[in-house]
Amino acid sequence: MKYSFTIIRIRGIPIELHLTFIGLLGLLVILTYPVIYPTLLFGILFLSVVLHELAHSIMAQHYNIPVRKIILYPIGGAAQIEDIPENPRVEARIALIGPFTSIIIGLLALGIHFIYPLSFSTIPLFVWTGFVFFDVGVLNLVLAGFNLIPAFPMDGGRVLRAFLTYFRKDFVLATENAATIGRFFALLMIFSGFLGNFWLTVIGVFIYLGASQEVYTARISSILKPLRVGDVMLDRENVLTVSPNMQLSQALDLMFQAQVKDLVICTENSLLGVVTWDQLLKIPPEARQITRVGDLHIKPLSIMSENSAFDAYKIMMKERTRLIPVVSTEAPCNLLGIITNHSIAYSLEIGRTFGIFPRRNS
Ligand SMILES: [Zn+2]
Predict the structure, then answer these.
(1) 267 plus 282 within the same structural domain
(2) What do you get for the CA distance between the two ends of the chain, in Å?
(3) Last residue within a domain, chosen from 185, 200, 224
(4) Does residue 304 lie in a domain region?
């Protein structure tokens, strides 16, 4: 099931509303009906958050880091940036531009308010109302201040890590230190939330979990980034491949013998892609005799042997697949082997125990 819906694309980045966001908006309209002002303010705040996240995204794109999407949740937005920049200056710039944008919007709105204090209080439906530009200005400054809290996944956490990486020269260590400081702030929020503001407790828990996730990702990336896919792949002779003309029932038999869950599809001389376990499960048993492998949608997945194992890990997460066919730059249709989730897990285990997975000579 999809939990978020794309409303618009800007610079190729889909902007999605999460279901909980739509729910909260609906609740707000019902609770405050027939007064319009809170909904109007929520709408403007939502636009401000989009601008904040777009600023992060455009800065990331400026450094050639792809941005997958921007999702808007009731407690704020999140730009899903594909890679963690390990260069501290780049990370600091991408993190700081968001709050900077909110501060500019906030100051502009406050400036307009002092010149022209707009209020709708004379229009009957707006009865419960404040000054629009004043409220928008203050809300944007609060948004900037909140995001500068030095805790993951807030922007302040990233700025802190960039600062620590710059001085300590060790990305993972800097992440661990930043996460410890972040957890301290999270606990502070959780406990002060108990004193009256429940919302603060919810955000505190969210920040606490964010810190652990960040350390996990930093550790994984530090082990997998120096590893080439070619170092950890299974060679072609150990890979089960099937032809698109094969009957599905026959392909399943081969699959069970080889004890794998996804199929690599090849014609006699070229790689076509992957059919995953989830796709195979959708075909009812009675149809397996009459379906050919090629009738299913073959995902045209592959990765170059020179790419890092971290790239492979990211593709597996995104495409929900357990294996990726490996090819070379010179012959992109020629299967060299596969990299699997087991290869990734094994490399991580070896990396944690011995420092780094050994490189192959090639
Ligand atoms: Zn931000």
Answers:
(1) yes
(2) 44
(3) 224
(4) yes
Neighbours of 163 (CB within 10 A): 16
Distance 72 CA to ligand 1 centre (A): 12
Residue 200's pLDDT is what? 83
At 325, which CATH number? 3.10.580.10
Average pLDDT over residues 284-295: 84
Per-range mean pLDDT, top range of 11-25, 99-113, 210-224, 315-329: 99-113
pLDDT in tens, 81-106: 777 777 889 999 999 999 999 999 99
- Going from the Cα of 207 to the center of ligand 1, the distance in angstroms, rounded, reads 14
172 with 268, same domain: the answer is: no
Tokens 């990336």 correspond to 221
Residues 25 and 91 in one domain: yes
CA of 136 from ligand 1 middle (Å) equals 17
Residue type for position 99? P
Q: What pTM did the predictor assign?
A: 0.74
Domain count, the chain: 2
318 and 204 together in one domain? no
Residues in CB range of 108: below 8 A, 6 or more apart: 137
Closest to 239 measured CA to CA, from 254, 227, 224 = 254
Say whether 53 is catalytic. yes
Residue of 16, 53, 86, 214 marked catalytic: 53
Give the C-alpha separation, 336 to 233, whole Å: 9
How far does residue 29's CA lie from ligand 1's centre (Å)?
Answer: 27
Q: Within this chain, do residues 152 and 240 fall inside the same structural domain, yes or no?
A: no
Question: DSSP character for 135?
Answer: H
Asked if residue 197 belongs to a domain, the reply is yes
- Are 199 and 153 contained in the same domain? yes
> Could you tell me which residues are beta bridge partners of residue 339?
324
Residue 87, CB-side half-sphere exposure with 13 Å CA sphere: 7
Q: Is residue 208 part of a domain?
A: yes
Q: Give residue 327's domain range.
A: 229-354
Q: How far is the CA of 45 from the centre of ligand 1 (A)?
A: 14
Q: Assign 3-class secondary structure to 242-300.
A: ECCCCEHHHHHHHHHHHCCCCEEEECCCCEEEEECHHHHHCCCHHHCCCCEHHHCCCEC
